[in-house]
Amino acid sequence: MGKSIHSGKQSRRNFFKSGAAAAAGALAGFSVLRNTYGQNLDPIRVGLIGCGGRGTGAAENCLKAAPNVQLIAMADLFEDMLEKSRENLSSPDREGGRLEGFKVRKDYCFVGWNAFRQLLQTEVDLVILATPPHFRSEHFEAAVEAGKHVFAEKPVAVDPVGIRRFIKAGELSRQKGLAMGAGTQRRHDPGYLEHVNKIQDGRIGEILAARCFWNQGYLWKRDRQPGWSDMEFQIRNWNYFDWVSGDHIVEQHVHNLDVINWVLGAHPLKAYGVGGRQQRTQEVYGNIYDHFAIDYEYENGLHLISMCRQQENTDHLIGEYFTGSLGTAESHADNRFMIRGRNLWRYDGKPVDAWQQEHIDLIASIRKGEPYNEAQNVAESTLTAIMGRQAAYTGNTVTWEEMMASEIDLSPAKYEFGPLPVRPVPIPGKRD
To answer: For residue 67, what is the DSSP state?
Structure first.
């Protein structure tokens, strides 16, 4: 799975320069697609599975990506979530006016545990997968089997069992010639694209070490309402339960880890780390941690220090940093990209809405008849985050091979609205 950065007698610098060639070629493809819709303007019919805030935003991005893109079907576990999204997307009072591509009829709205399968039976060409992460691998598998192009939000699984399922479906999607776009939008940001190219071209020399951070305050939460079962509460408040979100290192910090893997052209071999739960200890915050610090090791001894936290009254820092033999490089999601040292450089391009651009690129690739597939990249980055989480949860060194073979499966025993015990908060070193 993925490229190994084992180089024998080859230096680490030479590996990263030579090993980046294929990645640079792939990135060049995006510059060809950027800001073009291609010649084929036949309708692309879209279905949305998962109608929360991110799903609604992704649907809007998709409708604005190109002419004649139509949202024709919607599915969600909860009727109120679907109706709220439908109202928002169809409203004539929305900022920027009505979305011309909104074509969803009532009989193409599906609710319940089987809603995603009902949607896949319609004539949609492309599906947006934006449910809580636990459901991603099953929904992706079903979409590929139905012959649909896919845009899937990250992360794409919450455990190794889900990752293997996603990888298998990703291989099938490539065999079928289907597009698979992932919600790792930094790979579609012009600033990131140019920045990564310069690092891979050797601007900072041999890459010696890396750091990445996603440190911020609290996220939204939903207090339990009367009549909600355990299952409903946990899914509606999905950020805070490991089985639904994967914990915030997987759900959120995966963005930064993806950039590191992208630059290095590889995944880590092992992880060792710590984490815990200091501020968010109330029941509404489920069983996840509020901070992690992981030391990832790649081949040839390169180490990545990874930190993420969601704690109030703390410094915020979101970005990626590389130390090389000729200088340093840093990237941030707010359009700041720079290289210091022997080869000074600072990105001076205009900011682009990367959430919009990833849909422009995906639609353009489909219409051009050259659908790209990001399944492998996003699977590796998701497993990188899962590996770090397990290292912190257990207090032990965790290897890539162990994770790839692991039978860790966070799925509930059954999918129905009713009692669902919350897994205890992990305590490193504690044995049952």
So the answer is: T
Per-residue pLDDT tens digits for 144-176: 999 999 999 999 999 999 999 999 999 999 999
Distance CA 206, CA 16 (A): 8
Domain residue limits at 298:
186-350+375-405
**CA-to-CA distance for 389 and 296, rounded, in angstroms?**
11
For residue 128, the surrounding DSSP H or E stretch is: strand 126-129
Quick one: DSSP state of residue 373?
B
Domain assignment present for residue 6? The answer is no
| CB-neighbour burial class of residue 283 (10 A; exposed 0-12, middle 13-18, buried 19+) | exposed
At 341, phi and psi to the nearest 5?
115, -145
What are the structure tokens assigned to 317, written together?
A: 């820092």
Give me the CATH number covering residue 138. 3.40.50.720
Distance from C-alpha of 186 to C-alpha of 30, rounded to nearest angstrom: 12
Which amino acid is it at 63? Answer: L
Residues 379, 242 share a domain? yes
- pLDDT score of 228: 98
Whole-angstrom distance, CA of residue 328 vs CA of residue 426:
36
Asked if residue 24 has pLDDT above 80, the reply is no
Domain count, the chain: 2
Query: Which is it for strands 44-49 and 126-129: parallel, antiparallel or unpaired?
Result: parallel
Half-sphere exposure of 314 (CA within 13 A, CB side): 17
pLDDT in the model for residue 310:
98
DSSP 298-315: -GGG-EEEEEEEE-TTS-
| CA 179/CA 165 separation, integer angstroms | 18
According to the model, what pLDDT value does residue 96 have? Answer: 66
Domain with residue 293: its CATH number is 3.30.360.10
Positive or negative CA dihedral for 341, 345, 351, 354? negative
Give mean pLDDT, residues 347-370.
97
How far lies 15's CA from each of 18, 257, 268, 299, 351, in Å? 5, 20, 15, 11, 31
249 and 388 both lie in a single domain: yes
pLDDT band at 29 (very low <50, low <70, confident <90, very high): very low
